[in-house]
Batch of 3 targets.
Target 1
Amino acid sequence: MSEKILTQLSIELGEKLRQQKLWVTCAESCTGGWLAKTISDIAGSSAYFDRSFVTYSNKAKHQMLGVSEAVLQQHGAVSEQVVREMAAGALKAARADLAVSVSGIAGPDGGSEEKPVGTVWFGFAYLTVNGVEVVSRNCCFDGDRNEVRLQAVIYSLKTLLSEIIKN
């Protein structure tokens, strides 16, 4: 069932991107490339998807996306500040029109009282006439590691479709 949902959302996203001649990129941590895989599973996705970034470690986030080491130390990888920098960095590095970033605690370990397992932050960056706009969102998903990651991918696609890409 989840595979069907992912495919449907990816097809819908691809159609919108193609119609508006937009390019999307991803900067993923906890989803480990699942979002990029889902987007690129659709035949013809090379018309709107060129590259993405799996930046699982803080070092990769800093080196590949330009996330500030100070921000990583002060706020941690699973934070609004980090996903905002990840999305903006991916947008710039990929020369895309839209970028989505994901960083979270999928579990089963790694959670805390402040950031429990299931906490996921999302960043959505896009080009405007005034430069780059970044929107961030936070969710706390239930379930095991796979379920948290799946929900994060679905949320990313749905948010791109409903809030980020203008009709």
Target 2
Amino acid sequence: MVDQEKVTIKINDNGSIRITGPVDLVDGVGDKYEVGASFSLCRCGQSEKKPFCDGTHKKIGFESSPRAK
């Protein structure tokens, strides 16, 4: 059995989705984005660097704090 690092995806309160661990991020046609060991994806829809977060959620007052049930 191969020991693989666990990937964590965290939905930050009022902010981005943070991915930590070895993953491939691909677009709609299968082309890969260059990503590091961790990165943040936009959740507010207003980032100038989509699909990545650029911190715009702070400027626009984005609010969302979903919880697992």
Target 3
Amino acid sequence: MNRLTILLPAGLMALAGCNGGGSEPDLESDEARHSYAVGWQVGQNIQRSGMELDGNAVAAAIRDALEGQDPALDQEAMQAAMQAAQQKRMDEQRQEAESNREAGGEYLEEFKAGDGVQVSEDGVAWKVLEAGDGDSPAAGDTVRVHYHGETVDGEVFDSSRERGEPVTFPTDSVIKGWQQVLPKMKEGGKWQVVIPPEMAYGEQGAGPAIGPGETLIFEIELLEADAE
């Protein structure tokens, strides 16, 4: 994402959204169509980010800036508003992380109590579904795997199985939980793996699909231990 996209998305999204209450935009000219295309793309990015904005207020601010008008809020007021919004988001993220950690911890404890489950010192737990009889990857090897990933509430956040296409990557390029289990697996093996947040994406999460403090559940099948 370039700097222009970072600076302008809120206003462009709001300007596009505010058309719902008025006339449809005239998209006959190349400039208008280009403007709409940029606004649509940026609006989608903001929608995925989960940012909550007042479209009317943002549209007014964009128009004032484009027309060279004085802002309705001074710099101090705008800075305070930005800081308040940031603090609100941090508080919400902290609460979400606590809730996710509690749910994930309960799931992990139940999983660990199951037959045949092994646990690393860092809390990564796994159960061997199929042992496999091939080689094991060494650190830094490139592997080819199929996987299916869910949160503890059953939401699928990523799945090469569903896409029908295995993935290839170096073992040292993935989350810590995967780095722990992959060298223990053998080609042809399939494991169920539960990874606590500190060995996954931590307090930040990863986009809208994986929240802060999320415990992750994977089914991993090692197809090839050294795919180079």
